[in-house]
Every structure is written in C-alpha cells, then in structure tokens.
Amino acid sequence: MSKEVIVLSGSGAIGIAIVRRIAVGKVLLLADLKFENAEKQAQELRNAGFNVHTIACDVSNRESVNKLVETATGLGKIMGLVNTAGVSPSQASAQRIFEVDLYGNALLFDAFSRVMAKGSSALVIGSQSSHRLDSLTLEQTKALALTPTEELLHLPFIKEVNDSLKAYQLAKRGNALRVQAEAVNWGRRGARINCISAGIIHTPLANEELNGDRKDFYRKMLKELPVGRGGSPDEIANLAELIMSEKGAYITGSDMLIDGGATAKFWWDLTN
Ligand SMILES: NC(=O)c1ccc[n+]([C@@H]2O[C@H](COP(=O)([O-])OP(=O)(O)OC[C@H]3O[C@@H](n4cnc5c(N)ncnc54)[C@H](O)[C@@H]3O)[C@@H](O)[C@H]2O)c1
C-alpha cells in the first residue's frame, strides 16, 4: 500500500509545530529555501520518531517547485500540503515578498493541485495583516483570486507597490482569496484547501518584525492585544490540526483569523 505523505514548504517555526501534529505515522517531506533549515528540523523530528525526508526548494521558482512535487509523489500519496514559506516586511523588499508569498504560494497550489490524493488537505499561513488592508475593488479581488499564476506579478496594482508592508498585506490577502477560488477545483478531486491568517506568533520571523524598522508599530500592537500576549506556534498548530484532520472535513475555501484580537482592536476599538 502506498505511504501517506505530508509536505511542508518552509521549515520554520509555525510549519514545524503543525507537522508535529499531522505527520505522525506518515512520511514527512521538509522543504526550505535554506536546506540547512530543513535538515536541522529533520534531525530533531527523526529523534522524535518521525520518518523525514528533506529537500531544498524555492517556492518562487517553477523548476524548484516541480522538483518538490516529483520528489513528494515518489514517496507516496500526498495527503497533506502545508505552505509556511514566507518572508516578512522587515526581511525583504516588496518585490521579493510578492515573489515568495503571493506567486510562490500560487505556484505551489497549482503544481500540487494535480497530485493531491482523495481526502487530502492543504493549508497556507496568511496573516492578520491582510485584514487591515482597506477594501479592494471587485476587479482587484477577482484578479488576486483568479489571475493565472504566471501573470500575477504583472498585475498593475501589484507592480506599482514599493512598500514592503503593503506588499505583505496584498500577498497575504491574495493567499486567502486564492484558497477560496481554488477550493472549487480541489473539491472535484476530493481535496480541501484553506488559509490561516495568523497574528503575532513568537517565531524568528515575528522577532525580526518586533526589532525591525517598524518595531514601534508591532510592539504597540503586541502590547494592546485583547488577549494580552503574543501567540505561540503551537496555538496555530491547534487550529491547523483541526483543519487538516477528519474533524475539519467540512472546512474548505476558508480563511481563519487567529490573532489574539489584533484585527478586532484595529477596526473596532472605539476608545482610540
Ligand atoms: N510569526 C508570525 O507572527 C506570523 C504572523 C502571520 C503570518 N506568518 C506567516 O507564517 C509563515 C511562517 O512564518 P514563521 O513565523 O514560522 O517564520 P520562519 O521564518 O520561522 O519560517 C519561514 C521559513 O520559510 C523559509 N522560506 C523563505 N523563503 C522561502 C522560499 N522562497 N522558498 C522556500 N522556503 C522559504 C525560510 O527559510 C524559513 O525557514 C510565513 O508565511 C509568515 O508570513 C507569521
């Protein structure tokens, strides 16, 4: 019988917390732009009894993503895909954020949509930041949801953005919209696809934001969160585990916000 495979793209803090929940007893393929990240995580997981393979992959490169799909399908039937490969506003330019977080995610979903097994599930980690964006026009909304992957980076309202935070917000909004649009096709294969929009989760990526150019903005947000603290990768994994499991079988095309109330505070704190 073919083995069940879980693929993690971006072997960082949130992704690893998720696969620890969903890859027990399965074959786990860890991918990362920095192969050493994947290898380091693999060592720890192997010590914990996981069956782990590693591969270098740049999600913003079609050839690299095709190689990931080929490697994954060679290991067995794909039951889970988790995309946590991302760069944040303090880590990269607007262009690089669009390449990795917007185009890369669309590329990955395209490539895997053809090989996901019946009953499988995919997930991308979006961001609460996308919920702070003003409303997009209907055309922009449709464009993010439906534009063929290779044309995404050429959309005029994407090309004109130079600010890395705006790029991050648009890219993550794109993730949530893409998931909604893709859910229809994926349903025809008996597969599900969802997005989690995470708030401030204590990871190396969030720490760069909390100490980067916009540190005052992020520290204020953290201090004022309705739940009174930042989140942990395990708290994202709690929700991801539900979505990816049989218990989440009715969830598809969804964008779930888990942000300690950051979005509620941003839009509806009338005391400000
Ligand atoms: N930590 C937070 O507060 C937070 C909040 C909202 C959303 N997110 C999102 O969650 C995801 C995971 O973030 P994290 O906090 O676990 O960060 P992390 O830095 O621990 O993990 C991200 C991983 O992605 C890898 N990566 C970067 N570019 C890549 C590429 N082109 N191809 C393949 N891999 C690549 C990095 O090497 C890193 O290992 C990101 O998409 C991030 O935007 C994080």
From TrEMBL:
Matching Gene3D superfamilies: NAD(P)-binding Rossmann-like Domain
Lineage: superkingdom: Bacteria
Coiled coil spans: none
MF terms (GO), sorted A to Z: oxidoreductase activity, acting on the CH-OH group of donors, NAD or NADP as acceptor
Family: Belongs to the short-chain dehydrogenases/reductases (SDR) family.
Name the UniProt record assigns to this protein: Short-chain dehydrogenase/oxidoreductase
Native organism: Snodgrassella communis
Lineage of source species: Bacteria, Pseudomonadati, Pseudomonadota, Betaproteobacteria, Neisseriales
